[in-house]
Fold Orotate phosphoribosyltransferase.
Amino acid sequence: MNRISLTMARDIYKAAHIGGTSGASAKEAAGGHFDKYLLMANPRLLGSISAELATRIPVGSEVLAGIELGGIPIVTVLSMETNIPAAFIRKKASGINKLTEGTAIHGKRVCVVHDVVVTGSHIVRSVNDLREAGAVVNDVICIIESNPEARANLQAAGLRFHALFTLEQLVLAGESE
């Protein structure tokens, strides 16, 4: 991990890590969790994260799509950072059966953006819905990969997965300070 990444990892840990045992191994300390809302509520940190995530967006992406609720703040800031339009994916279709709000996705190359990915199952369902609606979706980017199972599940669905940090990297960075 380079110095900038290490600093950001420590900042994320300080801002959002709850619980865990100081001095424990990374795996034991990860028994705590990351409060993504504390992370999203920190404008300086969210801006830094967005700038770094922008480097992970595949060339040719036409729409950034965030899954409610956690993906909405980061996709909004990332859209502002990159000038790539945003769409907001509903977990459940509304009474008018709209899958997305914001920018149209049909026929567009869409990159899905999320905050913390645990198993990836919800993302796979959302991506399948996006594809059925005519979007071309091949990539998912996120801030934190909480569980290696997520990467395997997303790759099995034919998705490339780009995470800024794994949970273990954040814990190691936070505990090493």
The chain is about 45% helix and 25% strand. The chain has a mean pLDDT of 88. The two ends are 14 Å apart (CA to CA). Residues 19 and 32 are 4 Å apart (CA to CA).
